[in-house]
Amino acid sequence: MFNYRLRHVPGTRLGKVDALSRxxxxxxxxxxxxxxxxxLLPSEVFIQAIQNLEPINTDIKQCILACxxxxxxxxxxxxxxxxxxxxTEKCTPPNWDIQDNLLVFRGQVYIPKxxxxxxxxxxxxxxxxTTGHPGxxxxxxxxxxxxWWPTLARDVNDYVTGCATCQENKVITxxxxxxxxxxxxxxxxxxxxxxxxxxxxxxxxxxxxxxxxVTDHDCAxxxxxxxxxxxxxxxxxxxxYQNHVFRRFGLPVxxxxxxGPQFAS
Length: 265
Prior knowledge:
- GO terms for molecular function: nucleic acid binding.
- The protein has about 260 residues and is an alpha/beta fold.
- It has helices at about 15-20, 45-50, 60-70, 70-85, 115-125, 135-145, 150-160, 165-170, 235-250, 260-265, and strands at about 95-100, 100-105, 110, 145-150, 195-200, 210-215, 225-230, 255.
- It has 10 helices and 8 strands.
- The strands form 2 sheets. A 4-stranded mixed beta sheet has the order 1-2-3-4. Strands 7-6-5-8 form a 4-stranded mixed beta sheet, with helices on one face.
- Helix 5 packs across helix 7.
- It is elongated.
């Protein structure tokens, strides 16, 4: 066994410690600094590089140039960029520039206000086999590597949430809703199977601010609208039904409600 003691030594006094931790083959021939780490594989084989949008082809460039003349925002920013004037808006020369006849905002090509052109670019970023139908944030990130327009995030969200391929193939993570069960039609007389519901907080008329709706679910599909007030009680609901429905159609066989206080009390 060895008796040893651990003692802290400030780093400024450890002048020879690096020599003990270095491996001989890592050192340069001249005995200088260690070589800088280098990646031997080309950048093209990495998935992040593969997912980047291809360089702007001639067709897309021509579409951007054609739509730019119809976009007031593009014309305004282009004028400011050419004049190199300052502005209180985010359109000063550090943000806006002109590269290859294209208007560039913070290094991203500005896409004029053209729905078809913007949808085509979103489709290219989302539906490409190398991207695999990513979600909203990833699709937006892929687009913003090259392009930008003011409503890009909203347009990407609308496109991705409406993508039929994503809806058909991606796993549903939320809880499934139960199947809706239709109400059976067994009676052949009106208002034998009824549904009752209150419509509250209506504009006041003749002293009333609500309405009790009684619907026939069987043969007639008719409805009776009974004016009332929001403070109506269970006993008052029964009186309303007696005066407006019972005296004409009698008692129902089935009554459906939302089990509110006016029905459950």
